[in-house]
Amino acid sequence: MRTVEKLIALCRQKGHTVSVAESCTGGLLAGILTSVPGSSAVFMGGVVAYDNAVKQSMLGVKVEVLQRDGAVSETTAEAMALGVRKKLNTTFAMATTGIAGPSGGSRNKPVGLVYIAVAGPQGHQVQRHVFSGDRAVIRRKACHAAIKALLSYIEAVKVP
Fold this sequence. Notes:
This protein has helices at residues 3-14, 28-34, 52-59, 63-69, 74-88, 135-157, and strands at 18-22, 43-48, 92-98, 113-120, 123-130. By secondary structure, it is α/β, with parallel strands linked by helices. It is globular, with a radius of gyration of 15 Å.
């Protein structure tokens, strides 16, 4: 069983719901979740917040966070996950923000840098990844890492 299928099955079994906030993955994460039969019992929806204005207005990311840390940062990923969880009233949320390339990278924030946040009733976690590959590969790797992160979070915190 694939990780995404395990996540959907576990959430269905426990009655949990999931939402997503996506930037660099541009809706791919939602697409992967909804590719699993029965995901409609778990996946409530998501926000593709590619532009900072959408991150602010739809997800509640503070302008100060974006100015100080940037759109690709731990604090932005955290705010995105917390914001979509609250907006869609779900048990859990995942968020992705990063630089899929081929351009846009810098010394401090290289192409392939992705922050993944998960949020739930017991708090939140953020992971920093630097994936290799082209744009499509980086986006897929980010999605799979987000799904794995949420599954690990749920199993670790043992939400009833």
